[in-house]
UniProtKB/TrEMBL annotation:
Keyword tags: Acetylation, Cytoplasm, FAD, Flavoprotein, Oxidoreductase, Peroxisome
Full protein name: Peroxisomal N(1)-acetyl-spermine/spermidine oxidase
Coiled coil: none
GO molecular function: N(1)-acetylpolyamine oxidase (3-acetamidopropanal-forming) activity
Summary of subunit composition and partner proteins: Monomer.
One record GO biological process: spermidine catabolic process
Naturally occurring in which organism (per UniProt): Oceanodroma tethys (Wedge-rumped storm-petrel)
Family: Belongs to the flavin monoamine oxidase family.
Gene giving rise to this polypeptide: Paox
Chief location category: cytoplasm
Stretches assigned to the Amine oxidase domain: 94-392
Matches recorded under InterPro entries: Amino_oxidase, FAD/NAD-bd_sf, Flavin_monoamine_oxidase
C-alpha cells in the first residue's frame, strides 16, 4: 500500500498533492505499458528509458492542463519517478535497461518483515540449528580450481574434482561447489577466480548482463522535523525534466539523484531516522566522500527542500557502500540493453556443461543474478539457492 507522504520541491515548499498524484499515476500507467513488449521480437526502442521518455514527450502538451508552470512541475516529478525506477532496477539510467525483458519483473506481494534482533538476528537463528563449525566466516576465496583431481594429504583412495583455495592459504576439496558471489564480483574477477576459466558462453553472459549500485543514506535526528503520520519524504528538483540530459558534474550535483527518504518505523525502536535512496554513478561518487561531507550535503539539501535555513543538522549519518565493497562491486543485477533473460539462464547453468560428464555439477551458480523471475533480489537469491540444492538432491 502507498505510504503517507509529503513531496518537497527544490523551491523550499511542499508540492501540490494533486500534481504529485497526477504525475505518479501517469508514470505508473506508462511503466505498466512496458509489459506489452515482453516476448516482442522487435520492440520499438531498445531501452525502458527511451520508451518512457518518448511517451512522456508525446503527452507533454496535455501535462498540467496546458499551463506552462504546471507542465514543468509535472515533468520534474516524472524525473524523480525515473530516478526511483533506477533505484528499483539497480541501474545508473533506465536507458541501460532492456525493454523487451523488463515485463518479467514482478513485485513481491506483501509488506516488509523485520526480524527480531536486527539484520544479524536471522543468520544467528539459522546458524543455531547447524552443528558448530559448519559455517566458516572470513575465509575469502582466491581461486576455485575445477575439472581437476585433488587429494587430501595422505589419502590415496579418493580424489575430488574441485579445490577451493582461500586467500589465507587454506584449501577445501569438494565434489560440488555452489557459487553465490554477486555479478559485480564476477564481472571484475571471473577470469582469474575460476581455473580453468569459465566457458566463453558463460563469460559473455556475465559481460552482457547489467549490474549497478543503489545505496542507502541513514540520517539520525534529535527530533523529527516531519509530521508523525508521514512515512515518505519525496524529493523533486523543479528545474529538471526527463526530456533533458542530466548533469554529468557529479561533484556539484550528485545529491540530486536522491529520490527521497523513508521514515524508519517505529521511532520507539529506531529513534528519529530517515533512510534515503540513491542509485547510479552519483551513488558511487557518494561512496568516495567522507561522512562529514555527506552529512553536510544532506543538511543543506534538507534545509533547501523544507525552506528552513535553521533546520538542525542530523546528529549522525550511516550509509552503505556497495560499489566500494570488493566482494560485491555494486548492489544487484538488471537485464541490460544487448542482453536478455537467456543470459540469466546461461549464468545459472552448472558446469561441466556436458550432462554425461562422469563428474557432473562441479560448479553450481546461485544468487539473484541467476534467477529469471525478478520478484526481488532477496527472493531471487533464495529461490536460486533452493534450485541448486535440489539439483544436488536429484543427483
Amino acid at each position: 500500500p502507498p505510504m503517507p507522504s509529503v513531496t518537497y520541491g527544490s523551491s523550499g515548499r511542499a508540492l501540490s498533492p494533486q500534481a504529485v498524484s497526477e504525475a505518479h499515476d501517469l508514470f505508473d500507467t506508462l511503466l505498466t505499458s512496458t509489459r506489452a513488449f515482453r516476448g516482442a521480437k522487435e520492440p520499438p526502442v531498445p531501452s525502458v528509458g527511451l520508451y518512457l521518455r518518448a511517451e512522456i514527450a508525446r503527452r507533454v502538451p496535455t501535462l498540467g492542463g496546458g499551463e506552462e508552470d504546471a507542465r514543468r512541475l509535472r515533468l520534474a516529478i516524472l524525473a524523480t519517478c525515473l530516478k526511483l525506477e533506477c533505484c528499483i532496477s539497480g541501474t545508473h539510467s533506465m536507458d541501460l535497461v532492456a525493454l523487451e525483458p523488463f515485463g518479467e519483473y514482478v513485485s513481491l506481494p506483501g509488506l516488509d518483515c523485520t526480524f527480531p534482533g536486527g539484520y544479524s538476528g536471522l543468520p544467528d537463528r539459522m546458524l543455531s540449528a547447524l552443528p558448530e563449525g559448519t559455517v566458516l566466516l572470513n575465509k575469502a576465496v582466491r581461486t576455485i580450481w575445477w575439472r581437476g583431481s585433488f587429494r587430501e594429504e595422505g589419502d590415496k583412495a579418493r580424489d575430488f574434482p574441485v579445490q577451493v583455495e582461500c586467500e589465507d592459504g587454506d584449501a577445501f576439496l569438494a565434489d560440488h561447489v555452489i557459487v553465490t558471489v554477486p555479478l559485480g564480483f564476477l564481472k571484475e574477477r571471473h577470469q582469474d577466480f575460476f581455473q580453468p576459466p569459465l566457458p566463453e558462453r558463460k563469460a559473455e553472459a556475465i559481460r552482457r548482463l547489467g549490474f549497478g549500485t543503489n545505496n542507502k543514506i541513514f540520517l539520525e535526528f534529535e527530533q523529527p522535523f516531519w509530521e508523525p503520520q508521514q512515512q515518505l519524504l519525496e524529493v523533486v528538483w523543479e528545474d529538471e525534466s526527463p526530456l533533458e540530459e542530466p548533469s554529468t558534474d557529479l561533484e556539484a550535483n550528485w545529491f540530486k539523484k536522491l529520490i527521497g527518504f523513508v521514515v524508519l518505523q517505529p521511532p520507539e525502536q529506531h529513534g528519529h531516522v530517515l533512510c534515503g535512496f540513491i542509485a547510479g554513478k552519483e551513488s558511487e561518487y557518494m561512496e568516495t566522500l567522507s561522512d562529514a561531507e555527506v552529512l553536510g550535503t544532506m543538511t543543506r539539501v534538507l534545509r533547501t527542500l523544507t525552506g528552513n535555513p535553521r533546520l538542525p543538522a542530523p546528529r549522525s549519518v550511516l550509509r552503505s557502500r556497495w560499489h566500494s565493497a570488493p566482494y560485491t562491486r555494486g548492489s544487484y543485477s538488471y537485464v541490460a540493453v544487448g542482453s536478455s533473460g537467456d543470459d540469466i539462464d546461461v549464468l545459472a547453468q552448472p558446469l561441466p556443461e556436458d550432462p554425461r560428464d562422469p563428474r557432473p555439477l562441479q560448479l553450481l551458480f546461485a544468487g539473484e543474478a541467476t534467477h529469471r523471475t525478478f520478484y526481488s533480489t532477496t527472493h531471487g537469491a533464495l529461490l536460486s539457492g533452493w534450485r541448486e540444492a535440489e539439483r544436488l538432491n536429484q543427483l
